[in-house]
Amino acid sequence: MRGKRKLEQAKKRDKKVKITDIAIAKVAYIEYKGFTMEQNRVIQQLVKEVLLFSSRENDSNEVAITCDLEGENPLMEYGIAFGGETDVDVCSDTRSYHILHSGKKATVILIHNHPSTKTFSLVDLQFLLIYTRIKMLIVVSNQGKIHYIQKMEEFDRKAAVELLKECVDEYNMGKKVTERYKASLAFLVRCSEVGLFYK
Questions:
Q1: Is the separation of the CB atoms in 149 and 187 below 8 Å?
Q2: Phi, psi at 68, each rounded to 5°
Q3: What's the predicted TM-score (pTM) here?
Q4: Residue 9's pLDDT band (boundaries 50, 70, 90)?
Q5: Which of 44, 70, 93, 139 maximizes the CB count within 10 A of its CB?
Q6: Cα(41)–Cα(46) distance, rounded to whole angstroms?
Q7: Residue 117: how many CB atoms within 10 A of its CB?
């Protein structure tokens, strides 16, 4: 009986969860490494806004907010992209595209929700490594649980790309979603080796 219950719970984790006001209210304040108290408050508010936009305007599907934390008013000047149940094209939004491709030095964070309760996908990790301006990537489940991955001072992009390739090769990347997710989990377990902090 216990095994059957665990299987049912696992299946539920892979399905879309509707966002509730309770989930939004319980978004935690986190002291991210290297960020000020004010920046941490801004990030908390932006995480809540991702869930609000997803709930009210996108049927609890993926929404991404891209923000330059060093901007004059980061709570008003961010990019927002709307996606489907399993993905979002961040660069489809003009402001997000500009933030990611601007030449000026900035602390860019990208926040998006996952309708399931899973952590970072392989696509998320690839996106983090492609865009050098992204300092931190945050994913929040539709239940309000936060995971984040942050580039530290010792971050080695070349080594990170090699590690991701190694993890992908290890799972003999077919087209199965489970294989792709296992590859991303394998990368997250070892990401500190390349100067990434994951929690």
A1: no
A2: -95, 105
A3: 0.88
A4: very low
A5: 139
A6: 9
A7: 15
